[in-house]
Each structure stands twice: as C-alpha cells, then as structure tokens.
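Archive maintenance. Older records in this collection stored only the sequence; we are now back-filling the structure field for every entry so that each record is complete. The fields below show one back-filled record exactly as it appears after the update. Entries are processed alphabetically, and Undecaprenyl-diphosphatase is next in the queue.

ARCHIVE ENTRY
Title: Undecaprenyl-diphosphatase
Organism field: Albidovulum sediminis
Length field: 268
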Amino acid sequence: MFDAVVVPLLLGFLEGLTEFIPVSSTGHLLIASRFLGFHSAGGTFEVVIQLGAILAVVWIYLAKIVRTLGGLGHDPQARHFALSVLIAFLPSVMAGLLLHDFIKTVLFESPGIIATALIIGGIVLLIVDRLPIPQRHVDAEHFPWRMSLGIGLAQCLSLIPGVSRSGATIVGALLMGADRRAAAEFSFFLSIPTMVAAVSYDLWENRAGLDAGAVHEIAIGFAAAFFSAIVVVRWLLAYLNRHGFAVFGWWRIIVGAGVWGLLLTGHA
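Back-filled structure field:
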C-alpha cells in the first residue's frame, strides 16, 4: 500500500517539475519508473499524468485561453493565434499515430536510447543558448504560420523519449527568431492540444488494462503533477529571461551520462 501511494506521488511530482523545462519529463519518468521497479500497463501512467501538468497551464492561462476562444468569430488576432497552434499541433499528431506502437514497445523500453537523447539534447541546448540569433518575435500570439509549422515539425522529434517536447519546441522557436519568453509560452500553449490528444489516444488503446489499481495510481500522479507544474510554469518564464538554458543542458548531460554509467556497470 505504501508503494502504491508514495511511488506514484513521487513520479507525479517529477512529471510536474520536468514537463515544461527542456529536460524531457517522459525520459525522466521512464528512467525513474525503471529504477523504482514501477510498471504500468502499456506505459499509460507515464503518459496520462502529463495531463495533470497540462491542466496547470490551462489554469494559469485560463483568461487568455477564454479570450482567444471567445474571439474566434470576430477577432483576427485570436483566429491567427488559434490557427498557429493548430498548425504546430498537426505534424506530431500524424507522426504519433503512425509510430505509436513502435514508440511504446521499443523506444519506451530502451533506457540507452533515452540516455543518449538526453545527452545529445543537452549539447544542443548549450549550443543554441550561445548562438547570437536575432530575436525578431517577442509575442507568442503573433508567430507567422510558417514559423508555427517549423515548431510543429521540431516537436515531432520529441516522440523519441529523452528528447523533450518542450525542449524541441523551444529550440525550434529560438532558431527561428523567437525570444526565450515567447518561445516558452508558445510551447506551453502547444502542449495543451498535443497532450490531450496523446492521453486520449493512449487511454483508448490501453482501456482493457486499466483496473482500479491503475486508476488509483494515475489519480495520485495526476494531482501531484498538477500542483508541481503550477510552481514550475510561474517560475520558468522569469528564470529563462535572466539565465537561459545552460543549466538544463548540463542537467540533461549529467543524467544521461549517469544512466549510461549504471547500464554499463550492470546496475540496471
């Protein structure tokens, strides 16, 4: 009973803490689950609790979301922003549908792939953080549609666990001239339809394996992810403006190298 509460609680907090920073929440969850001896049917727990973190974004940006949805009929800016998010959302949905079984049965079960993706992603973050890229776009609501498509294509890389959905979309936006705050905010909004679609599909695919115990674990992880993500989202934007991404890049490299060390020495 202790493990059935504490482990999902710890994993939920880990999800909320890592979902919106570019370190790969899925990679951290899969690694932590493996070393804690936690297993969920079809990896559903690790996917579904991400919706708790997404709900935190909805909560924080509720006024902007309501304003955008309410203005779709008469406000060109609201329609532009909504269409931008939709354009960015579509590539990963199509790729996810095509590759779902391979991702869940092969990539999710490969800690070596996750560790390698963490290290490579960390190096990319360190490089991009130092590039002198002109910041032409400072408002996430005004990204050009071609730019939104580029961010959506970058998000497809996050289908590999360890890459990081937020990392891929933020780096994609930065390379196309967004400033750090706008890149992070667009990534927040893009996470809403992306993760709702991913969770819905995953629940449907694994509906037969969801018993009362699994639902109980998911509920605990969901709540923990929601509350910890609220703290992270409020903190992250201010942090990025002052410090950039270097600390996240180094963290990824350290975690990835640590996992490889455990694998190579037979401790995993």
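Update note: The mean pLDDT is 88. Residues 2-264 form one domain.
Entry marked complete.
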